[in-house]
Amino acid sequence: MNVFRLAGDVSHLVAIIILLVKIWRSKSCAGISGKSQVLFALVFTTRYLDLFTVFISAYNTIMKVVFLAMSYATVYLIYMRFRNMYDSENDTFRVEFLLVPVIGLSFLENYAFTPLEILWTFSIFLEAVAIMPQLFMITKTGEAESITTHYLFFLGLYRALYIANWVWRYHTEEFFDQIAVVSGVVQTIFYCDFFYLYVTRVLRGKAKMILP
Amino acid sequence: HALKMPHDEL
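YS: structure for the whole thing
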């Protein structure tokens, strides 16, 4: 554990809490892609199956359970509790275009050809692209509420901090997880355009982020 | 630089 990794995990936690609290308080999930949230729940589910096979640390176990619970709570709020507010007309990204290549890749490129390892690899690749339905939705509607952009900012910050964590681990413990690093870098690139808009628009006090 | 298993990151 290093400071980048801890800060990354905290950013990830903050992002998910921001989204959950936003939906709960406003009693609305307008502007939120339910598809991205289902994909994230699938990411956590397939990655954290090792909860049943290995124990790494109390921190690791607690964080995994919290992430799982919060991602399922988010999906529940969007599709059950506040489904009337769900903007399905703008949440039209074709998820199968992500799932098919990701499933194929996880069978081709993995550390061991075992069910748990293939599912872990699937979760890593899927996380890299899971935000695409959300970014697609913002592009389609041309705007995002500032609280939604704060969510995306913390999610992107988490990714950037994980890259710093990998650089640190590479130099201090010769740790290099090629699958996680390559897909992590790809994932971070998706946020760059958004980061630019966030800094130039949202941080200048706009209530909404309107796309140029 | 072999990967250390199990996966210890979130």
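YS: worth flagging: Residues 4 and 10 of chain B are 14 Å apart (CA to CA).
IM: good catch. Also Chain B touches chain A at residues 1, 3-10 (CB under 8 Å).
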